[in-house]
């Protein structure tokens, strides 16, 4: 299609007029970052002026930045929890927002072991949809011809629950996939999925994955890109294929659907797609029957141009495995979002994972930044709000903690993400995601911090007391060489009575006791999603942690300030620990989890 020259974009030549308008919108937003931010804050403060939260801080209907910054404190989830609990318990007064709270989005972060509840309103869905609509026009600049095929995306919904007051609580992507915006999305030839909505919307993870994989195999030559939300999710799909290819090949050969897939809507949908294809079944068998899975993605889906997965932050640990299975295909990280707010997009989605940076779109919310310097931390006090940096005023090379104010009523909320400014697109800064604040271990959507790990250790070591055995020291490691990945805990024990040491069974139970103590996101990943494997405890020889200290000191650590690390990922240290292992133990069962929140 010929594109009007006045709609051409500095980002590159758009593929069509619709793309041109999307790219033009990005240019307008990023050229006017500060004025857009000023307008967004004024809109938020104006529409929420009569809410209990803003009135508490005597904002008085003001919509300017200076009043807002001087009166409204910077807060964490724990500060907001009493208000959130009131909404969850049925209070429909305008506490956060003048618009009704439509549902809660459950965060992968936790509070007291349960997912955090983020209030949202109906028109936030439109803002999220707007950001989604910008992704494909940007990708089309770098990968032409995506309208000639399909995307094999492994997309899933998760269990949802209701609060005591009757509001739905569910993950943000579950909310989006179940929305009319997704289910009745307009046809876009460059963004067609192999997975039918019926499979994506099936809450049973086996039936959903099986159907999505089957459709991907049936349409293998049409697939131009393969993806999941997180890198871990795509690797889980490959592992699923390893375990189930024989049944999948049988279904393809016979044109019949595995009876384990019992969902009526899926069976009805697949009856129109699935026809006997012995030749394809033979191909799948030839590729999957054996130990060589190197390059399996490009062997089965030969026209794949890139993988669409998040490989920043904790997901970077999966890059080598993705390279193995894909033959080193490019990995596109397209957007930056959370349950609290959608933030922005990657304007160079085909860059190397180490170079990924996100341009925050100033229309999505009001953004401020706390300078992050571990050596000189900013003191946050409710009595005297600190000076935070505006989006347009961040400095190149510096690190910041992200603070957001949203249309749904979150005001000056600390998200917990540490970002580094890597450049600018027009006047909009571009950020590299550095890490999640305070997170020690993460395999999938789980986030375990030091205090949670410590509590789990204490609960598990209580099982050692009858054996007069103490824990000398411990550390941890997120092992992603296995699929799914799992937590590894290294223990050095002092067994005071060698005639009565803890048995293999007791140490296995210690693994389960740790898992039962971890937060609900971890337990859901273990039990319902199967995205994390059983926790493992590796017992190391006595003196191992002294060796670890000697190694750290030899590399320049201060003997006076040395503390055993609570998490390790530096290869020589992991190798040292593994070389001292005397026994290994695994959790004998999955921990307890239900969708209902603990009361």
From TrEMBL:
<dbReference type="InterPro" id="IPR004993">
    <property type="entry name" value="GH3"/>
</dbReference>
<dbReference type="GO" id="GO:0005737">
    <property type="term" value="C:cytoplasm"/>
</dbReference>
<dbReference type="Pfam" id="PF03321">
    <property type="entry name" value="GH3"/>
</dbReference>
<protein>
    <submittedName>
        <fullName>Indole-3-acetic acid-amido synthetase GH3.1</fullName>
    </submittedName>
</protein>
<feature type="domain" description="GH3 C-terminal">
    <location>
        <begin position="452"/>
        <end position="570"/>
    </location>
</feature>
<feature type="domain" description="GH3 middle">
    <location>
        <begin position="358"/>
        <end position="436"/>
    </location>
</feature>
<dbReference type="GO" id="GO:0016881">
    <property type="term" value="F:acid-amino acid ligase activity"/>
</dbReference>
<comment type="similarity">
    <text>Belongs to the IAA-amido conjugating enzyme family.</text>
</comment>
<dbReference type="Pfam" id="PF23571">
    <property type="entry name" value="GH3_M"/>
</dbReference>
<dbReference type="Pfam" id="PF23572">
    <property type="entry name" value="GH3_C"/>
</dbReference>
<dbReference type="InterPro" id="IPR055377">
    <property type="entry name" value="GH3_M"/>
</dbReference>
<dbReference type="InterPro" id="IPR055378">
    <property type="entry name" value="GH3_C"/>
</dbReference>
<keyword id="KW-0436">Ligase</keyword>
């Amino acid at each position: 299609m010929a594109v009007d020259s006045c709609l051409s974009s500095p980002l590159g030549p758009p593929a069509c007029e619709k793309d041109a308008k999307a790219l033009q919108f990005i240019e307008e937003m990023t050229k006017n970052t500060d004025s857009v931010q000023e307008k967004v804050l004024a809109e938020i403060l104006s529409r929420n002026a009569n809410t209990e939260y803003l009135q508490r801080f005597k904002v008085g209907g003001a919509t300017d930045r200076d009043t807002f910054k001087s009166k409204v404190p910077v807060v964490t989830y724990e500060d907001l929890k009493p208000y959130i609990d009131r909404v969850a318990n049925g209070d429909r007064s305008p506490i956060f927002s003048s618009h009704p709270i439509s549902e809660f989005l459950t965060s992968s972060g936790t509070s007291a072991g349960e997912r955090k509840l983020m209030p949202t309103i109906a028109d936030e869905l439109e803002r999220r949809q707007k950001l989604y609509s910008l992704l494909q026009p940007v990708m089309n600049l770098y990968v032409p011809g995506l309208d000639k095929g399909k995307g094999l995306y492994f997309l899933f919904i998760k269990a949802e629950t209701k609060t005591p007051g009757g509001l739905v609580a569910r993950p943000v992507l579950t909310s989006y996939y179940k929305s009319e915006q997704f289910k009745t999305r307009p046809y876009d030839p460059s963004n067609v999925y192999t997975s039918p909505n019926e499979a994506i919307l099936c809450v049973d993870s086996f039936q959903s994955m099986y159907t999505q994989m089957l459709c991907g195999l049936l349409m293998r030559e049409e697939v131009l890109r393969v993806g999941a939300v997180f890198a871990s999710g795509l690797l889980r799909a490959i592992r699923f294929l390893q375990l189930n290819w024989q049944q999948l090949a049988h279904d393809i050969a016979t044109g019949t659907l595995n009876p384990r897939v019992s969902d009526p809507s899926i069976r009805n949908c697949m009856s129109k797609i699935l026809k006997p294809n012995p030749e394809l079944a033979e191909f799948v068998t030839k590729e999957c029957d054996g130990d060589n899975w190197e390059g399996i993605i490009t062997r089965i889906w030969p026209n794949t141009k890139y993988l669409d997965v998040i490989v920043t932050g904790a997901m970077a640990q999966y890059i080598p495995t993705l390279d193995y299975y894909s033959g080193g295909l490019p990995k596109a990280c397209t957007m930056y979002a959370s349950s609290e707010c959608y933030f922005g997009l990657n304007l160079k989605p085909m860059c190397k994972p180490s170079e990924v940076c996100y341009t925050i779109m100033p229309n999505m919310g009001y953004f401020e930044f706390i300078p992050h310097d571990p050596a000189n931390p900013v003191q946050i006090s409710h009595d005297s709000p600190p000076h935070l940096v505006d989006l347009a005023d961040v400095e190149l090379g510096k690190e910041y903690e992200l603070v957001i104010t949203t249309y749904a009523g979150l005001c000056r909320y600390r998200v917990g993400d540490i970002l580094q400014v890597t450049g600018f697109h027009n006047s909009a800064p571009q950020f590299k995601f550095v890490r999640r604040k305070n997170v020690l271990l993460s395999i999938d959507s789980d986030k375990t911090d030091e205090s949670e790990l410590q509590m789990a250790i204490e609960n598990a070591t209580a099982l050692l007391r009858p054996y007069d055995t103490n824990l000398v020291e411990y550390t941890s490691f997120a092992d992603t060489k296995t699929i799914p990945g799992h937590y590894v805990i290294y223990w050095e024990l002092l067994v005071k009575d060698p005639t009565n040491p803890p048995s293999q069974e007791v140490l296995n139970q210690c693994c389960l006791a740790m898992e039962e103590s971890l937060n609900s996101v971890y337990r859901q990943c273990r039990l319902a999603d199967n995205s994390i494997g059983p926790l493992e405890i590796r017992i190391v020889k006595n003196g191992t942690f002294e060796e670890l200290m000697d190694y750290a000191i030899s590399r320049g650590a201060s003997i006076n300030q040395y503390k055993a690390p609570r998490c390790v990922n530096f290869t020589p240290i992991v190798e040292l620990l593994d070389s001292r292992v005397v026994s290994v133990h695994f959790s004998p069962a999955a921990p307890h989890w239900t969708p209902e929140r603990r009361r």
